[in-house]
Structures are given as structure tokens and as C-alpha cells.
Specification:
This protein has a six-stranded mixed sheet with strand order 3-4-5-2-1-6. Strands 8-9-7-10-11-12 form a six-stranded mixed sheet. Helices cover 45% and strands 17% of the residues. The protein is flat and about 85 Å long. It folds into three domains: 5-118, Gyrase A, domain 2 (2-Layer Sandwich); 123-207 and 384-428, Up-down Bundle (Four Helix Bundle (Hemerythrin (Met), subunit A)); 215-373, Rossmann fold (3-Layer(aba) Sandwich). Strand 10, helix 11 and strand 11 (325-330) form a beta-alpha-beta unit. It has helices at residues 27-34, 86-98, 108-115, 121-132, 136-146, 149-173, 181-205, 209-214, 228-236, 280-293, 314-317, 358-373, 385-407, 410-428, 434-441, and strands spanning 5-8, 15-23, 46-51, 57-66, 77-84, 102-103, 216-222, 254-260, 263-269, 298-304, 325-330, 348-351. The longest helix has 25 residues, at 149-173. Bound molecules: guanosine-5'-triphosphate and magnesium ion.
Length: 448
């Protein structure tokens, strides 16, 4: 943690106000010098004129100083609220560098907060998640993680492992007193399997990462002319895709983001799938669509309830399942429409008319996606890839403890538990190397 750092904390570009953030031992002296003030009360907003070292007036600003006890970074820091003009901001940063500051690296403010124990690593990660959260669910999870919910669960796991370690060590120390091998094994095995169950719950939550991260990818699929593009337009609430009675209208797939019931959905309208494409161009469109369909997390399968069932083709036949696919029996307003429950019978079905009842269709689709694909109420934390890696290693070590206890003995199992605790420590705090921290904080923006 060397030197005093400075960076623009608001986005680069024109705005009402731009916030320049400063952190490090020189913060108080810097604001004192710049604004010619001898005494500055922490956490108090001041009005001042920013004068550069050469005496030029750069801007009329507000500023505030935070002492190390009550700052984000855990060290003396300050914020300067300038007009949101990037020439002014560039000049202020240049002046700060002239006064001995250094421009901050990505995530350096939060990295300092972590090194000063203001946050643990899980909470630091939550800062990025919170900034990038694009749905209410993602925001709620990030806020819980930032407030320490995930860390709490990890500490509980750590405490339990410490208890097991204590039992094992007592037994090592007083081996002559003989607690009774079987009784000891039973007590420990029970505790270890409870810990494994807790770890499994956390590991299981990782499958909601995709949903929280970039939103859910939902592909609208079906035969040509079924009404897929009509459905896309209905869900978007605008005329985005061409709709026509000519089969094979959509060639290039169309991707659009939409918020349904507070959740971000990446909707994908695709080219109609059929075995006898009429042209090379249609075939190219289908191939491109199939590539995209494979990456989807859920499917809205639109069929024309007046026509023969679609032939989905080998490539995507197996993708829709009861967990991820809603079959929409469209064009129910036409006289020859009939129920199609025997087509993919395990999937949920709805008889609809996109044309005549767009609002009902919107509600049906939102409910389906909410039920199947969003975060269940009981999932309060969601672990990321780094956590999965650590938790998996902790779990393997615990399983080994159990085996070691049965085969080699108490002394060696205590070592395994110590290892498991050591690995678990990496989740919230202890870190092996600088490069891991570099990687983690490189996902931040510069002023955070
Ligand atoms: N009667 C009726 N017609 C509909 C309904 N939904 C869509 N259509 C009509 O069906 C035709 C095809 O609709 P599209 O939305 O272009 O179908 P698509 O599945 O995107 O077709 P391709 O892009 O060719 O694969 C258009 O004429 C729509 O107006 C409906 O609920 N009822
Ligand atoms: Mg279409």
C-alpha cells in the first residue's frame, strides 16, 4: 500500500458532478494545501476553490475529508466534487499527481479496504457484483454478500471444523484416557457430514450465477411461421422483428434484452426450423440459430396449433425439457386450432394467441420464467467460480479426514482438518499470492 492514490470515481464523460477520490496518508495535507485550510473536520462538506500548484483556478468545488477510522479504504481519504467536465477532471488529476499522488489502479481503493480489514474478500467481490447487478435478484444477492451473509456461513463452517479439530487434538493429547475409538469416530463423522451438507448447499447455489450474472438467455424456437417473431415483439412491447405470413421471414437471429417481472432476460428470436429449407440462405440462418439455441438457459417453443407438429431436428431435439421449456400453442383464435398436449407432453403447455391476447401471453411467459429459472426464495447467497474452487477443495479434504480417521488414525486426521481450515481461509481473507489479488481486483473499475 504505497503512496496516496487518486482517481475519478464517477464515469468518464459529461455529467452534473464528477467525484475525484483520494486515499492515503497525504490526503489531509493535500486538501489543506489545495483549499488553504488549516483545520478540517472529518465527514464535513466544505465549499472551496480548487487552485492548482501554479495558482490557476481549476474549479469551484465541494470537498470532504474522511479520517482512517471512518473511511471506505481504512486510511485517510478525501473526495472532491467538481463539475462533471472531463477537462476539469483531467486537470485536477494532473495537479494531484504533481502534488505527489499516483493514479489508482483498478480496484485499488477496495483492495486497500481489504488490506485494512474493512472488508473481507467475499465482501470485496460483492462490491463489483453490486455495481454490475442488472436485476433486482442480482442486487439483493450482492447486497447480502456485501453485508457479510456469505462470510457468516463460511465462519460457521470454520467454527465447526475448529470444534472437530479441538476434539481430535484433545484425543491426541490424552490418548491414554481412551475416549473409545468407535465413539470418537462416530461423533466426528457426524459433525463432518453436517459440514459437507452445508458446503454442498453453497456449491449448489453456483448454478444461479448465469441467471444473476448476465441475465437468463431465453430462445424462442419453433417451425417457420409459428409466430416466434410476433412473440418477441409482444414481450418487448415494440415492433422489433419483421412479421409476415411468408415462412422463413427471420433469417438472422435477433437478440434483445428485456426486463420481465423485475428480471433481466436476453431474448433470442431465431429462424424457423424445418427439414426442407427452401434456400441456401434459409439454411445458413437455421445453422446460425442452432448455434445460439444451444447456449440458451430456457426455451419458449412456439407451435402453430392449426398445423402439423414441427420437426425440430436432431441438433436441438434434446434441448427442451420439462425444466426449461414452455410450449406455446399459438394461433388459438383460428377455427382449426386444437390442443397439442401430446407434443412434448412432459413440458408445460399454454394455448395462446399472440395476436389477440398479447398481455395474457406476457404474464404467462413471465410466470413460467419466474417459476423455473429464477432464484428460489431460500437461496440467499450465490457463490462464484473462485468460491466453487475453494469449497470443492475443502470438501475433498474433509472427505479425506473421514477416511484417514478410519484407516490411519486421529493424529493424521487432525492434519487434514487443519488443511481444510487453511483452504477455507482463502475464501474470505487469507490469500496465497499477490497474483490472485491482482486477478480479483482487475475486474473493478479504476475509482472503486
Ligand atoms: N391468427 C393468428 N395469426 C398469428 C398469431 N401469431 C402470429 N400470427 C401470424 O402468423 C404469421 C407468422 O408470424 P411470425 O411472427 O412472422 O412467425 P415466425 O415464427 O417468426 O416465422 P419465421 O420468421 O418465418 O420463422 C404472421 O402473419 C402473423 O401475423 C396468432 O396468434 N393468431
Ligand atoms: Mg420470425
Amino acid at each position: 500500500m504505497n503512496g496516496t492514490i487518486a482517481a475519478l470515481a464517477t464515469p468518464w464523460g459529461e455529467s452534473a458532478i464528477a467525484v475525484v477520490r483520494i486515499s492515503g496518508g497525504q490526503s489531509l495535507a493535500l486538501v489543506g494545501d489545495i483549499f488553504l485550510k488549516e483545520s478540517i473536520t472529518p465527514r464535513t462538506m466544505y465549499h472551496g476553490v480548487y487552485r492548482s500548484t501554479s495558482g490557476a483556478i481549476l474549479d469551484d468545488v465541494m470537498f470532504v475529508y474522511f479520517c482512517e477510522k471512518s473511511s471506505y479504504t481504512g486510511e485517510d481519504s478525501a473526495e472532491i466534487y467538481a463539475h462533471g467536465n472531463m477537462v476539469i477532471v483531467a486537470k485536477i488529476l494532473e495537479d494531484l499527481c504533481g502534488r505527489g499522488c499516483r493514479l489508482a489502479d483498478r480496484g485499488e481503493f477496495t483492495r486497500r479496504a481489504f488490506l485494512n480489514k474493512k472488508l473481507d474478500l467475499c465482501q470485496a467481490e460483492a462490491v463489483v457484483d453490486l455495481i454490475h447487478a442488472s436485476s433486482e435478484a442480482a442486487l439483493a444477492v450482492a447486497q447480502r454478500q456485501l453485508s457479510g451473509k456469505l462470510s457468516e456461513k463460511l465462519h460457521a463452517i470454520g467454527d465447526e471444523l475448529m470444534t472437530v479439530l479441538a476434539i481430535l487434538e484433545t484425543h491426541v493429547d490424552f490418548v491414554e484416557e481412551e475416549i473409545g475409538g468407535n465413539e470418537l469416530d462416530g461423533r466426528i463423522a457426524e459433525r463432518l457430514s453436517a459440514v459437507i451438507a452445508d458446503i454442498d448447499l453453497l456449491l449448489d447455489s453456483s448454478r444461479y450465477q448465469t441467471v444473476l450474472g448476465g441475465g437468463l438467455n431465453v430462445a424462442i424456437i419453433g417451425a417457420p411461421n409459428a409466430g416466434k417473431s410476433s412473440l418477441l415483439n409482444c414481450l418487448l412491447g415494440m415492433d422489433r422483428a419483421l412479421v409476415s405470413p411468408i415462412a422463413g421471414t427471420t433469417r438472422d437471429f435477433i437478440a434483445e434484452r428485456v426486463t420481465l417481472g423485475g428480471h433481466v432476460i436476453n431474448l433470442l428470436d431465431t429462424a424457423g426450423l424445418r427439414a426442407d429449407a427452401e434456400s441456401e440462405l434459409e439454411l445458413c440462418g437455421m445453422e446460425k440459430s442452432i448455434g445460439q439455441i444451444r447456449r440458451a438457459n430456457a426455451y419458449l417453443l412456439v407451435i402453430d396449433s392449426n398445423a402439423d407438429y414441427p420437426v425440430l431436428g436432431r441438433e436441438i431435439f434434446l434441448l427442451p425439457s420439462e425444466d426449461n421449456c414452455l410450449v406455446l400453442e399459438n394461433k388459438s383464435d383460428l377455427p382449426n386450432s386444437r390442443p397439442c398436449g401430446d407434443f412434448l407432453p412432459k413440458c408445460e403447455h399454454c394455448r395462446i394467441s399472440v395476436l389477440k391476447e398479447p398481455e395474457r401471453v406476457k404474464v404467462l411467459v413471465s410466470n413460467f420464467l419466474a417459476k423455473r429459472c429464477f432464484l428460489p426464495a431460500e437461496v440467499d447467497v450465490v457463490v462464484n467460480a473462485r468460491h466453487v474452487d475453494i469449497l470443492t477443495r475443502v470438501k475433498q479434504t474433509i472427505i479425506r479426514t473421514d477416511q484417514t480417521l478410519a484407516t490411519i488414525g486421529v493424529e493424521f486426521s487432525a492434519n487434514d482438518v487443519r488443511n481444510a481450515l487453511e483452504i477455507l481461509g482463502g475464501m474470505t481473507g487469507r490469500y496465497d499470492n499477490e497474483s490472485m489479488l491482482d486477478r480479483l481486483f482487475s475486474t473493478f473499475c479504476v475509482g472503486k
